[in-house]
Here is the input.
Amino acid sequence: MTFRVRPLDFPELRQDPLSGKWAVIATDRASRPGSDLFRESETPLNFCPFCEGCEHFTTPEILASRNPGTPADGPGWRVRLFGNLYAAVRPGTASPIGSAIAPGVLAAGAHDVIAECAHHEQSLARVSLDNFRDLIRIWRDRLRMHRESRRYPFALVFKNSGTGAGASVEHSHSQILAMPVIPTNILHELANSRLWYAQHGSCIGCDTLRNELAASTRIVAANERTVAHGVWASCWPFEMSLWPRDHQSHFEAIGEADIDSLAELLKDVLGRLDRKLNNPAYNLVLHTAPLDGPTMPSYHWHLKILPRVTQPAGFEWGTGCHINPVAPEQAAEYLREG
Amino acid sequence: MTFRVRPLDFPELRQDPLSGKWAVIATDRASRPGSDLFRESETPLNFCPFCEGCEHFTTPEILASRNPGTPADGPGWRVRLFGNLYAAVRPGTASPIGSAIAPGVLAAGAHDVIAECAHHEQSLARVSLDNFRDLIRIWRDRLRMHRESRRYPFALVFKNSGTGAGASVEHSHSQILAMPVIPTNILHELANSRLWYAQHGSCIGCDTLRNELAASTRIVAANERTVAHGVWASCWPFEMSLWPRDHQSHFEAIGEADIDSLAELLKDVLGRLDRKLNNPAYNLVLHTAPLDGPTMPSYHWHLKILPRVTQPAGFEWGTGCHINPVAPEQAAEYLREG
Here is the structure.
């Protein structure tokens, strides 16, 4: 497929004024390996660019956990962050584009990849607990860098595991995308949590945790500082949220004890998914308060695990409401057994 | 997969108090043919239950366009509406469930299927213009029935075309799901359109149409009463919206001239998609004002066509913002040529 209209010089973040939703129009992404659109032109790689020893195939290293004395962009790392070669956003200034009825800004931002282990492994659940700790620290450190740069009000940490979840490289990896606007999902959570705080005088996340622990039917696993539970209004079968027990609005402020606890619990629940659902595709996303704001009493960061075992269709895309054939109480019991 | 926790007696509409989003927890849908979850237990049908002559395999007919004198639930129809055998919602009362931190209602509603032609045809674009007109009238008439029943404030007309868009039956069909709450996507559109009206004194849909016709770069096709254009902030490559040129908030008030015009334009643009993108999977959704409210100067009904040629992943599910590798100006030019 070729277009006569030429690609955009710079990716654009366009907003639909009716839905409020943003879309990144990134016309040079169509040519990336694994692109859904242009499969015919795809030449599969015969090696893995995310494995140790292939560092020269990636963009330069930005952060890594490394053996002492090993230089950047060579072997000797456990977890390694570098710029996405097919970034959806680019460094720059988010200048306004369009008009009131067709508004937007240039899609200025940063789009990173984090290789989660040095050896070729597809499942994050199978990497070592040390790697989990390093991974969480690298998520934290990259968010801190973005916070300190004051360039972007929000960054999403996310992971696509399996082709059914949108992964185009099989080596276990996550991504961080820093963007010049706060996306609608986060805006709605912030608005609803502020409203809850005004009405109840407490954090909606703390209250959710209290409710889940009291009900106990949706708890999948928990340890001293972190809880994983099936979500009351799960959009996906086996959907889970992980929360720190202590109130924390910003993930980048996470301390060492919470890193240890989250590492253990995340490895535990991803292992349960692999064993009990036979390595399902899943997405993992981190919802945390905006990078340009202070500590908030109303918002509580959490990790969401979205197993991609059902196919959203017209009803879901039209309404935002998902039809889910598995109750989270069924899902939690099934995963607890594992 | 078997669960010890028993299925729900009645499907539940649960709300996530943090995101505001609803989910239908419908535990008896897991056993339907084509369910993603339990593929191992699936026995494919060796006939098509939506074809003429198989009326006894469906639930009783509710609406149909029929040859004069042919009785319901037998041959002689062109377009036929009946209850979904695997309905996500059920007739009943939307009694509250849960609590403030885990709220919901019983998922009372109606979930219909509309067979769009009597012969076995997978692509709606290939059915006759007469069938398109009958289909639009049946959408209208079913919405009118729901409006007059005063039971449900909203109903979504939608279509899943192709397995990649969530279709579990290949015979061309659409669906209507009436529900006891207004879902978030519609609430956000209503709020944004009211705000636009307050700020600009005009309908956001009328202004979008004016802007698209003036710019012309995203117009795909248009006729006397209806316009189809690529969406400025397209979430999907080749996403299109179809609007009546005259201001209309409620689809169920559509007149015969607009039915003719919409039938022609919808058949035209779906044919372009089939020809130019090689029969892509797509969803079609109708956004219209709530069934329990009066005519609105601020809201404008529209049909959205969402080609499922990309795979939403963690970034999209985490933010609500889509990464789209095709600019709508490129898409519109490509489709105009077809």
Summary: The domain at 116-338 of chain B is CATH 3.30.428.10 (HIT family, subunit A). The two ends of chain B are 47 Å apart (CA to CA). Chain B touches chain A through 98 residues (CB under 8 Å).
